[in-house]
Specification:
With about 120 residues, this protein is an all-beta fold. The protein has no helices and 11 strands. Strands 2, 4, 5, 6, 9, 10 and 11 form a 7-stranded mixed β-sheet that branches. Strands 1-3-8-7 form a 4-stranded antiparallel β-sheet, with no helix packed on it. The N and C termini lie far apart (about 40 Å).
Amino acid sequence: QVHLVESGGGLVQAGGSLRLSCAASGSIFSIYAMGWYRQAPGKQRELVAAITSGGSTNYADSVKGRFTISRDSAKNTVYLQMNSLKPEDTGVYYCNTRGSTAWGQSFDSWGQGTQVTVSS
């Protein structure tokens, strides 16, 4: 079983910054990709940013140039640096990771979510 622990959410004024962290633990053999999704009230969950084991990144158009995803492979941790935050960035941010366990099983795990609120 793979467990994800997120941290770093909170309340910030528009234009401010936050840094989210997500650490994966458990029977991890390898991680293929890690990413961040968000869900605003009344909306579907959407991809914010993702990073592969090779370091390739993918961003939602709405956050390009403002958010940066990075990872520490040795710590199985992914980060999301969020700058120039806007009220529309408000939502619950979820960490996701996909990979394989020591027993060769694939996993697709989600964190519990962390609230990000941007005030205008």
